[in-house]
Amino acid sequence: MILEALIGIVMNVMVADNATGQTIIKGIVTHNKIENAKKDDKWKAMIHEESYQIIKDTIREIGK
What are the residue ranges in the chain where pLDDT is below 70? Predict the structure, then answer.
C-alpha cells in the first residue's frame, strides 16, 4: 500500500501539466476503486455511481 502511494505521488508530479497523463491516472484510480468494490461485492452500486459521475463531468466539459 505504501509502494502504491509513492508510485501515485511520482506519477502525479510527472504528469501534472499533461492532460493525457491526468486522464490515465483518473482511469487507474477508477479501475482500482472497481477492483476494491468487487472484493467487497459492492461493485454494482459503485459502477452505477461512477457512471453518473462520468456523465456529469462530461456535461460540464461540454458546457465550457
Answer: 1, 15-21, 43
Tell me the CB-side half-sphere exposure of residue 64, using CA atoms within 13 A. 5
DSSP string for residues in 1-63:
-HHHHHHHHHHHHHTTT-HHHHHHHHHHHHHHHHHHHHHHT-HHHHHHHHHHHHHHHHHHHHH
Cell of 37: 468494490
* Verdict on whether the full-model pTM lies above 0.85: no
Cα(14)–Cα(20) distance, rounded to whole angstroms?
A: 12
Domain count, the chain: 1
Instruction: Give the domain range for residue 29.
Output: 19-63
Query: What pLDDT is recorded for position 55?
Result: 93
